[in-house]
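Quick question, first post here. What does this chain look like in 3D?
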Amino acid sequence: MSFLIKSALITDKHSPYNGQLKNILLSNGIIQAISDDLPEATQVFDANGLHLSIGWFDMRVTIGDPGFEHKEDIISASRAAAFGGFTEIACLPNTQPAIQSKDVIAYIKSKSQPLLVEIHPIATVTNERAGKDISEMMDLHHSGAVAFTDAEHPIWHPDLFLKTLQYLQAFDGLAISHAEEKYLSHGGQMNEGIQSTLLGLKGIPTIAEELMVARDLQILEYTGGKIHFAHLSSPTSFELIREARRKGLKVTCDVASYQIALDDSLMDSFDTYLKVNPPLRTQAVVEAIIRAIEDNTIDAIVSDHIPQDEECKKLEFDLADFGMAGLESSFGALNKVLSNKVSIESILDKIAYNPRQILKLKVPVIKEGEVANLTLFDKDIEWTFKSENIKSKSRNYAFLGRELKGKAIAVFNKGQHLILN
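> Answer (accepted):
Ran it through. Tokens below.
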């Protein structure tokens, strides 16, 4: 079957057609032609000047399958990702059983194989994410794990982290660090500062993150290898990364889209959907994060999608679980903040190109003869995120009722396409 995307503005600085309005003919999952002509096709979609980029990639998604399918399963996560414009996602190993065996990796890859959205498993660093015994990372790598992390658990033991970086160098593997000194953040509910004092909630200080970033970078300098820091939230963390790069260390990092769209002034609502870790910081920190995006200190922007059921969120604030769902709202939230500050090409680098580079995955390109892995989107449309936009099994979306800017219109991958509402 052939599919013609008519009059799309190709937005891919790595494509020879970047910035050009073209007709793109797809057939059997391959880009057959890019031209000014209108070739015949089984189906035609008039893009009318919408942007066409390579498919977006979210490198930090909690699915919960296997073990927590009542919160999210592979099929519902794929639906949510596709609605958000993502054609590929990387899933965290916070499952039950954890992603620490060939069988679990095979299960995820098999169950996701027929879906439009490709799912890449990230395996554990330690067994059961307990921080004690290193997992069989070499075998997991050969089975298809794209990186290694203990998800929301920091690798607290410095010697174990040192050995992890040494071990991973054997196959150029990547450690993803959740930087948090648990003894400093223990019992914390939100950002430590004026707002936490006013609300009477125990705070999580930025130093809990900064100490672990500094420690990990010192170990990296000693051992070699490479580290990716997930969802950072401190200006000091960014300065440490800048300094590490000046030394030639291999370090990358990301932030969550909600970290640039929300701040701790909203916490006076005691809305548990806003309870995340690392927590929403002050507006001054949000502005520092945006500057780090502008100067490319931050390599990627993720949704940090963590679906939770009502039993985990409809509780007193200090009893509620951390985590915010956000695959469907991620682009609209980040684009609303960044659209007047950085180019759309720079945004696309952080949600499509760089994540694949970091994980050493093939980067699609918009070129004749290439596989069609594409996202068609409107970067300027303003819309309100409503309950009918939720495709996840869970409902813990802090952006419900909020105005967003920019939305995916269609996605194409694995010989399939989906036109979105």
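The radius of gyration is 21 Å.
The chain has 13 helices and 17 strands.
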